[in-house]
Predict the structure.
Amino acid sequence: MWNFDEEIGREDSDSVKYDLRYEKFGKKDIIPMWIADMDFRTPGFITEKLQERLDHEIYGYFFRSPKYYDSIISWLKTRYDWSVERDHICFSPGTVPAINLCTLTFTRPGESIIVQPPVYYPFFSAVESHGRQLIYNQLREKDGKWTMDIESLSSMITPGTKMIILCNPHNPVGRAWSRDELMELARICIKNRIIILSDEIHCDLTLPGYRHTPFATLSDEIADITVICIAPSKTFNLAGLSTSSVIISNPVLRKYFMHKMDSLHTGNGNIFGSIASTAAYSGGHEWLDALTAYLEGNINYVTDYCRELIPEIIPVRPEATYMLWLDCRKLGMTGKELREFFVNRAGVGMNEGSEFGPGGEGFMRMNVAMPRSRVEKAMQQIEKAVSHIP
Ligand SMILES: Cc1ncc(COP(=O)(O)O)c(C=O)c1O
């Protein structure tokens, strides 16, 4: 029913992934497997609603109607059995803006915020660019399995520690954290009165056989110290429409957050983002199930390919996201050499692991959200390049 195999040219569409290849990699003719968006056509149940509104031909000031909020509430209930009240949903033009606003709202200059690298690197600047202290609690890796180091986390908490930014599911290592793992983290946060900012933007991309646990569903007491970011942008490939939500059930935290948002006048959003989000959350279940099955196929393809033909590269099996975290340590190269090797020898543009902070060295992050034929081509190019390493 949905054709994820369709090859659609994205050149000359002001796409960061395609049209800024030269700026990012110094080369245009590479297969771009970096920034987190997908090369799939936006489904008709979204484009038809956008077209309808476009045809109206007046695009003045707008407000988000009850339908917008109801679609989010119904999506979260259906997929995660998470009951969210309409008033608890705050609009944000993006998740990264929301994380920055949380830093400004919930912490003071000089106070510390913990992140768990290797992790989505804008978390770092969301702390440091506002004069807060960035504390790394590095994830642990054993035999390809990545976990949180709860013991070390406990030991680094001081009275100045005010927030932890959690990536749930985790980009780039692909973990859909289990309920037990999240509970352990939550206990520490409750004990030390630390706010958990849980970035759950990738939650809908949890792969078949795995489960996403929204942090706020652990208990009411935990929900009270939790701020959760979600968005339709990764799920339905709508990142260019700048529409996301921050869910805060604690009325005091929510009041301060909204006050900050209002004082900066950043809460308007855009009418097309609102329409696309409503359409996506209202009609997207079947499409999303088909998408995650297709992504799983791409992940299996790369994993099998590496096992059979490029044993020097070991993909970490993701439980969520369309990102594959490739363990390239057997290639024996530095981060800079790896990046240079994949761009100039293999013709594939990926994110180099150390971009994600400590623990990322020797890894590459590969975005497989593209037609299988492109993934196949990339793997053939990588295989050829590896076979030529002296
Ligand atoms: C964990 C995570 N958070 C946030 C974002 C970006 O969010 P936004 O575009 O809504 O700012 C990304 C994009 O890759 C991401 O991986």
Notes: The first strand starts at residue 31 and ends at 32. The chain has two domains: 16-41+285-387, 47-283. The two ends are 46 Å apart (CA to CA).
